[in-house]
């Protein structure tokens, strides 16, 4: 770009001179210069690819020389002959020969790619993959700086996969990241992302800490910043840890210009192989002053005041981390199992401390620090050692840091007294307790740290003597403190008291103080020992509970009074027992069973009355809820229905008007109801329902519900229409109307309870009243709700 910008600037200057011919010539020269630069760059790339290809071929020739025991000329002839017979180029055959001889990660990737594509693709594509990977390897190994490494990876191996950007990060000893190579990203982005502190979360930093690859469909979906995010915020991104021997040396990050869909396993393997290739070429410079050699790290360990171990990675036959060898112990080393230093030095970590292999234990911590470089510090960590096959737990302050390839482990074991002191301090902090001791001979006062906190004082300030305790208390508590001190100091007996502490910062706390005198054998007072406890939370809780108890008692009294009023109101209108009625050719019987508990007094009602038109009004209803509101709502609806019946309206019309009363003239009352009119002349029963259970007809010892007709419950909407049903009664027919308290159960649905009621209703009895009593006796309801039951029988 600079080659284009500079001639363009010159062209502009020529244009300002006013010479038109010079300007045209400059334009022509700029185009020629740009074409020359592009041609030279392409020639350089072709020459580089040719050199890398020749390097692959030379490596393959070396393998043939070693295997065939021949000279370079014979090996070259053999390579050309084999390539012609296999219908491959010498470069493709060279990649195959290297793969067979190397048996490394790149070879494995090529074989897996061949296995995955064998059914539908030919070997040519597999060979192309091997050539790309081997070419990238040659470019990396021959590169003199990390920038060339990134460019070689992008050009040879990643560009064919659609990638447009590569970043190589070197991991620092503190889990920081340094950009050591990049390709496909602008120079401005590279400068902005030259260094990533350990506290900044990025895809590469996440891959380093979690020690696993991070695949992201789009960088914007991950929510983490990274290099190139301005240029392609929705591009795919992959970050793969690059390490050897269990130690992560850096991270290979690859970017795509568009969202990245899930990749096949063979592509994933290719990218992991490239990360391993980067790990072998990363050369991390030592931080100034950081000991990397074993001698320097041992000298550092020897200068530490705590026990220190220098751990060296121990690799298995495949080059993977298997354990850590304890290569050095400093003079202050103390073994948790009590063994001498000679029994531990030189041993493997898991041999010396096998219980450290527990998940999340010490070995996992060391492995993580060695892999990522992120230091680890813990104030209290359990180190378990085996003593005669018995696990012994030790609490220690632990520090683990990485120095080059080695790890420095520092621990400070807590003795029993330190552990008990720590536990005591923790208990005092949780209980908001502070301990004290006052020497009565020397007048020396000792306070625990928590006691300074309770009094709102700094540890540098002098503690308050017991004799001056009243100076820091509320004046009203002076008498209580005086009695406490008199019993403690004069009578020399243990005592306790509570008072209100007024701290210097203006905060008042409720404190309980408990103290014991320490006496000499001759009875002389030597010291006072005790503790202060902040009971402010307990005090205010007790105050709140007392207020709540008073409020609950008042509420219970009000509720009981309301329930008694509701019960009296209900019984005044509908007494539990009522004699039978005879009207024209009908026998009418009613039953009302109130709830057993007063607080469950409900709004069930029934009514049976002879109207001026000589028709008989029959009704049952159930107001939603319990208590005084339900009872008063029941009175309003029952009386309103009686008044509406005097108008001569039909049952459906009466329910429509009653719905207006419930919706507009009551306080949010809703109810279900049945309204029926019996005409003695025609023996026809007309009825309507508002969300209520339908009546039951018993005819010739068979019981069935009347056909269900429409009708919404009262008070739900302002305007509602109600359907009307008609029943032509025959001699000895019985009609039953009831509220749901007769059949409602918690353990079954209403349908099963209705079927049970129909079977019970067919039980033969001598009178209608006996039938109603039988239904109440054998009712299987368990909700303790009010129950109304109305029955009529045609003679």
Q: What does the model show?
A:
This protein has 22 helices and 27 strands. It has 795 residues and is of the alpha+beta class. It folds into four domains: 103-281, GAF domain (Beta-Lactamase); 294-414, Beta-Lactamase; 419-534, Beta-Lactamase (2-Layer Sandwich), CATH 3.30.450; 568-794, PPM-type phosphatase domain (Phosphatase 2c, domain 1, 4-Layer Sandwich). It has a six-stranded antiparallel beta sheet with strand order 3-2-1-6-5-4, with helices on both faces. The protein has a six-stranded antiparallel beta sheet with strand order 17-18-27-26-23-24, covered by helices on one side. Strand 23 (696-699) and strand 24 form a beta hairpin. The protein is flat and about 130 Å long. The N and C termini lie far apart (113 Å).
- The count of β-strands is 27
Give the % helix: 40-55%
Estimate what percentage of residues fall within beta strands: 25-35%
Average pLDDT over all residues? 79
Summarize the structure.
Helices cover 41% and strands 25% of the residues.
């Amino acid at each position: 770009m600079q080659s284009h910008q500079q001639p363009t600037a010159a062209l502009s200057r020529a244009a300002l001179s006013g010479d038109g011919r010079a300007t045209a010539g400059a334009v022509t020269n700029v185009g020629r210069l740009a074409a020359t630069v592009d041609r030279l760059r392409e020639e350089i790339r072709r020459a580089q690819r040719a050199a890398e290809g020749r390097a692959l071929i030379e490596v393959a020739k070396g393998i043939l020389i070693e295997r065939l025991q021949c000279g370079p000329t014979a090996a070259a002839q053999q390579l050309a002959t084999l390539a012609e017979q296999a219908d491959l180029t010498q470069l493709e055959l060279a990649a195959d020969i290297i793969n067979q001889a190397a048996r490394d990660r790149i070879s494995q990737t090529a074989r897996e790619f061949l296995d995955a594509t064998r059914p539908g693709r030919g070997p040519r594509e597999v060979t192309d993959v091997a050539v790309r990977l081997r070419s990238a390897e040659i470019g990396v190994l021959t590169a003199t700086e990390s920038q060339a490494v990134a460019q070689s990876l992008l050009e040879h191996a990643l560009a064919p996969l659609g990638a447009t950007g590569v970043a190589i990060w070197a991991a620092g000893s503190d889990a920081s990241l340094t950009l050591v190579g990049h390709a496909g990203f602008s120079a401005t982005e590279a400068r902005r992302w030259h260094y990533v502190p350990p506290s900044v979360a990025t895809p590469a930093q996440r891959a380093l800490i979690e020690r696993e690859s991070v695949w992201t469909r789009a960088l914007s979906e991950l929510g983490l910043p990274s290099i190139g995010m301005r240029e392609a915020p929705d591009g795919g991104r992959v970050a793969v840890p690059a390490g050897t021997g269990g130690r992560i040396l850096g991270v290979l990050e690859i970017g795509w210009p568009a969202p990245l869909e899930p990749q096949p396993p063979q592509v994933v393997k290719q990218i992991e192989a490239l990360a391993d290739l980067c790990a072998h070429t990363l050369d991390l410079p030592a931080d100034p002053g950081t000991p990397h050699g074993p001698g320097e790290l041992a000298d550092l360990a020897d200068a530490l005041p705590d026990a220190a171990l220098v751990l060296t990675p121990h690799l298995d036959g495949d080059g993977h981390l298997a354990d850590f060898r304890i290569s050095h112990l400093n003079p202050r080393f103390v073994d948790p199992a009590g063994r001498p230093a000679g029994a531990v030095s030189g041993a493997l970590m898991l041999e010396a401390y096998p219980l450290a292999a527990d998940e999340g234990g010490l070995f996992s911590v060391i492995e993580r620090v060695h892999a990522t470089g992120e230091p680890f510090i813990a104030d209290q960590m359990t180190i378990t050692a085996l003593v005669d096959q018995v696990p012994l737990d030790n609490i220690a302050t632990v520090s683990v840091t990485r120095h080059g390839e080695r790890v420095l482990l520092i621990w400070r074991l807590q003795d029993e007294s330190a552990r008990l002191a720590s536990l005591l301090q923790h208990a005092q902090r949780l209980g908001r307790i502070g301990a004290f001791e006052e020497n009565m001979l020397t007048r020396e006062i000792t306070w625990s740290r928590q006691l300074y906190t309770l009094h709102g004082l700094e540890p540098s300030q002098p503690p308050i003597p017991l004799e001056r305790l009243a100076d820091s208390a509320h004046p009203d508590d002076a008498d209580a403190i005086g009695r406490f001190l008199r019993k403690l100091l004069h009578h020399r007996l243990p005592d306790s008291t509570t008072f209100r502490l007024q701290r210097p910062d203006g905060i008042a706390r409720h404190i309980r103080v408990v103290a014991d005198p320490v006496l000499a054998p001759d009875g002389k007072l030597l010291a006072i020992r005790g503790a202060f406890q902040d009971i402010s939370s307990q005090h205010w809780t007790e105050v709140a509970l007392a207020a709540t108890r008073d409020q609950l008692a008042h509420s219970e009294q009000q509720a009981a009074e309301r329930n008694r009023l509701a019960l009296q109101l209900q019984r005044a209108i509908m007494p539990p027992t009522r004699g039978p009625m005879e009207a024209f050719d009908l026998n009418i019987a009613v039953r009302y069973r109130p709830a057993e508990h007063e607080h469950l007094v409900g709004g069930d009602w029934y009514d049976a009355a002879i109207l001026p038109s000589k028709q008989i009004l029959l009704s049952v209803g159930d107001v939603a809820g319990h208590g005084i509101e339900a009872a008063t709502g029941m009175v309003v609806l029952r009386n309103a229905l009686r008044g509406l019946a005097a108008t001569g309206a039909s049952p459906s019309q009466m329910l429509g008007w009653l719905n207006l009363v419930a919706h507009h003239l009551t306080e949010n009352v809703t109810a279900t109801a049945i309204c029926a009119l019996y005409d003695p002349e025609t023996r026809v029963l007309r009825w309507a329902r508002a969300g209520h259970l339908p009546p039951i007809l018993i005819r010739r010892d068979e019981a069935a519900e009347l056909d269900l007709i429409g009708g919404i419950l009262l008070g739900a909407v302002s305007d509602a229409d109600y359907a009307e049903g008609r029943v032509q009664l025959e001699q000895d027919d019985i009609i039953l109307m009831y509220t749901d308290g007769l059949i409602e159960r918690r353990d079954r649905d209403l349908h099963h309870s209705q079927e049970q009621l129909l079977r019970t209703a067919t039980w033969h009895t001598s009178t209608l009243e006996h039938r109603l009593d039988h239904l109440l006796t054998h009712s299987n309801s368990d909700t303790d709700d009010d129950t109304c039951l109305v029955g009529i029988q045609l003679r």
